[in-house]
UniProtKB/TrEMBL annotation:
Signal peptide: none annotated. This is Heptaprenyl diphosphate synthase. The chain crosses the membrane at residues 35-54, 61-83, 103-128, 135-159. It comes from Clostridium collagenovorans DSM 3089. Keywords: Membrane, Transmembrane, Transmembrane helix. It comes from the Bacteria. The lineage of its organism: Bacteria, Bacillati, Bacillota, Clostridia, Eubacteriales. InterPro entries: Hpre_diP_synt_I, Hpre_diP_synth_I.
Length: 176
């Protein structure tokens, strides 16, 4: 596949992640934790890890974070999204590569949700200069289980259907 096709695919993934981000902004989340979100954009991150590998998924995550901040964020949302997104990407990629036969995409997604929250708590501690914000982490980790399971099931479903049309095999040489 040409680099034009690969870059077009990356752009499509970014667009899909942005649509999920915008839809998520419209959903009232009645969680007990203020600021908690479903992390629907992470569905696209999981799919990208499986098809493209780390380097190109990094492009997807960075573009998604930058564009979502442009569309409706602030400097602080950029910091939180970037830290959570990058830490999540690293953790999910490691789990996907190291636990290929032992961990399902649901497990990979849960790890991603957990590390996304850890990244955001680290930034919170640095921004407000108060380590007590870490007391909020257990609540976020419990919520990570639900969102990680949902996003993992959705990612698995999407990849299953992409395999049915032999889509994924077209991208093997891209690093997935």
């Amino acid at each position: 596949m040409s680099s034009v096709k690969k870059n077009t695919f990356i752009a499509l993934l970014v667009a899909q992640a942005l649509v999920l981000y915008m839809v998520e902004m419209l959903i009232p989340v009645p969680f007990i934790a203020p600021g908690a979100k479903l992390g629907l954009s992470n569905i696209i991150t999981v799919v990208a890890i499986c098809i493209l590998g780390f380097k190109d998924t990094l492009k997807v995550v960075l573009l998604r974070v930058l564009l979502s901040t442009f569309f409706g964020g602030t400097l602080s949302s950029l910091l939180y999204s970037l830290s959570g997104g990058l830490l999540s990407l690293i953790a999910m990629t490691l789990m996907y590569k190291l636990g290929e036969d032992k961990i399902s995409l649901i497990g990979v997604s849960i790890i991603g949700a957990i590390f996304h929250n850890i990244g955001q708590i680290i930034v919170s501690i640095l921004v407000i200069s108060n380590v007590k914000i870490a007391l909020y982490l257990p609540i976020l980790l419990v919520l990570s289980l639900g969102t990680g399971i949902f996003n993992g099931i959705t990612s698995s479903f999407l990849l299953k259907h992409l395999r049915k049309i032999n889509f994924q095999s077209k991208f093997k040489k891209w690093g997935g």
